[in-house]
Amino acid sequence: MNRKHSLKLGLVFSVIIFLIILASGVISALLAISLHMKVFSPPNNILYPILNLYAVSVIVGTTISAVVGKRILSPLVKFSGALMEVGKGNFNIQLDENKYHIDELKEMSQNFNVMVRELNNIETFRSDFIANVSHEFKTPLASIEGYTMLLQSDNLTDQEKNEYTKKILSNTKRLSNLVGIILQISRLENQGIIAEKNKFKLDEQLRQTLLLFESRWTSKNIDLDLDLDPITFYGNEELLMQVWANLFSNAIKFTPDNGTITCTLRRSDSFIITTISDNGIGISEDVRKHIFEKFYQGDKSHSSEGNGLGLALVKRIIDLCNGTIEVQSELGTGSTFTVKLPY
Ligand code: ADP
Q1: Residue 204 clears pLDDT 90, i.e. is over it
Q2: Which atom of ligand 1 is closest in space to residue 287's alpha carbon?
Q3: 23/54 Cα distance (integer angstroms)
Q4: What is the mean pLDDT of residues 246-265?
Q5: Residue with the nearest Cα to atom 8 of ligand 1?
Q6: What is the pLDDT of residue 285?
Q7: For residue range 328-340, what is the model confidence (pLDDT) as tens digits?
């Protein structure tokens, strides 16, 4: 709202107050005069002091209301201007909360600031999401295109042909995995319950999943520390395997050479609790808030392998099992993922 509008609003407010005082003054003066005339015989000059008093009270009342009105209206004018900015898509605007001494105005500005901050987060998430999705598709597609063009050139050695074909194949596989995991997440998002369940040994499943990654943890000389109680679980074996696979895969990926990965399995009265800990790079507070979002990767440069879908899939499976997943982590020290499944 510009200055012209603000002045107009202040003027309208003062005129309204003036008219109210004027009207109430006229009514009360008329009442007072008629009462006085009925009860006493009126002296001729009684009208003048009353009219003088009345005129003074109208002027003083209107002036006070104009000053007070300006104080009340100015935050509203500021608020309206800020809202206009938000309407234009500016989500960086903030009101000065400490400027207002009236509780309601202070609360209003605090709520406004929270709203704008949330809108800003949503906007950042939306633009990051689009950038991440397109990056995940564009990178392998660009590789495939590049190596296919190279393959078309004459006088390539057999070794070069072989190398380029391998690159094309691995990028095709990457794309196909990406599409596969997107379809799986979307299927699970539309699914309300897990239908196929059977009994299986959870401790055995954790060991077997780790074995799938043997070449990766041995090549990094990672030490494994397993402390698993023998527990039989009733659930979807395949989906739970994917949970452990993603958590182990991340633990190995984000742990440096000679690191340690610890896994425990315990049962409480109503839960089965699995923890997977590593002493790797850890996760900052800011990154932690987003790790379960689709396509989110802590490393914005996407230099580490992965597509940011693993933990989104894990979260969806755990939700379907009516369980919970929590992460505790300290940057540079390591991370612990705790999965609780209802028993
Ligand atoms: P990605 O394909 O990148 O591994 P995920 O969905 O599995 O995608 O994980 C999302 C992000 O969470 C990762 O990019 C990383 O920043 C963070 N993260 C997950 N697990 C760990 C871990 N054990 N240590 C450090 N960071 C982790």
Answers
A1: yes
A2: 16
A3: 11
A4: 97
A5: 308
A6: 93
A7: 999 999 999 999 9
The residue to mutate among 250, 281, 293, 327, having the most atoms of ligand 1 within 8 angstroms of its beta carbon, is 250
The model's pLDDT over 105-142, given as tens digits with 9 standing for 90+, comes to: 888 899 999 999 989 888 888 887 888 888 889 989 99
Give CA angle at 198 (268, 261), nearest 5°. 50
What are the boundaries of each domain within the chain? 3-90, 131-189, 198-342
Q: Are 242 and 206 in contact (CB under 8 A)?
A: no
Residue 224, classed as helix, strand or coil, is strand
Return the SS3 of 68.
helix
Q: Looking at the domain 198-342, which fold is it?
A: Heat Shock Protein 90 (3.30.565)
The CATH architecture of the domain made up of 131-189 is Orthogonal Bundle (1.10)
- CA gap 139, 197 in Å, rounded: 38
Angle between helices 158-189 and 103-152 (to 10 degrees): 150
Query: pTM of this prediction?
Result: 0.69
Tokens 């509203």 -> residue: 76
